[in-house]
């Protein structure tokens, strides 16, 4: 996929629209999956809330993983006078609003599961069309700026989603509708303020070829490269340790951490998220350029990953609200450095620059896969090995493995 032949968008306007569209998308993911659904399931079946959250999160993540490439393929092949991204972006957003309305009516675990699987499916149609806009319309020499804007939108969405969801835990159906409406607004803003190239306005000379067999062969071939494989394994393992804790933060505050009187668990999640995101963003801004200057990227990833893992010792030995704030600062900063430098390492170990998009897509599995496995694994640890203390121990061990996985990489220092 190449940049459109006719560039009708000014870059500032395009990036502003992308910031808004990505922010509301991440806000929905965090607010709905991280707080509202967990609160909803706890109301429906308090005794089995941990297992139910694991079930809903794990199954719905499978739908997200499947429908993202489906959405990308559908929008790639669309030839419409409305553009090829707009129909799927707006359609996915409107369908997501419908799924949120269904979630608000759910009165059983099965109903929540089905509604959120539908929500994940259509949200990934929206997401696939939205994320394709950068390679479609942003010149290659401005992709770094565009990536930074998307990264800032991710942080903004994390904060917005947790804060808004915390405000609506007493009226969960309305909270669902607010997030769904925001995504529709995001799709409309992107569609009306930017130009989605019509047939004849974009280069159709580059096509992805090959069916499932060819894609599987490409996947195996890429993972056959020594350094690329270790980056993949390191990211997948580290993210597994991260999501095992993150996806159960609400219940950690409900059942494990002693909160001050008057501080609701959902509000605590929002405050902790803001703390972690802000410190992570600051550390990212400092750590990324510093690793470039010192040319010691492996060392940055190892140190940051080890610090992030060891930060989990704080709530393990001090299950209090002040300790969680300290944990949020340290873990957020370490995770920010890890994320920034890990992205730099990824770009340096790609098996083939000519297949960069394919290989980056393969590495995205290291982000999506842990979200599928983490809920089930965390639920098993909590129920079988003594509660949330055991979950932190497991998170520490798995995160350490991920941090140290970059050591065998040969091509970078």
Automatic annotation (TrEMBL):
This protein's record includes keyword Membrane: yes
Entries under Pfam families matching the protein: MFS_1
PANTHER family associated with the record: MAJOR FACILITATOR SUPERFAMILY (MFS) PROFILE DOMAIN-CONTAINING PROTEIN, PTHR23528
Main location group: membrane
Membrane-topology annotation of the record: Multi-pass membrane protein
All copies of domain Major facilitator superfamily (MFS) profile, residue ranges: 15-413
Protein name: MFS transporter
Gene3D superfamilies, per database record: MFS general substrate transporter like domains
Bilayer-spanning residue ranges: 14-38, 50-74, 86-103, 146-168, 174-192, 228-251, 263-287, 299-318, 324-350, 362-382, 388-409
Keyword Transmembrane helix tagged: yes
Subcellular location: Cell membrane
InterPro entries, per database record: MFS, MFS_dom, MFS_trans_sf
Keyword terms of this UniProt record: Membrane, Transmembrane, Transmembrane helix
PROSITE patterns per record: MFS
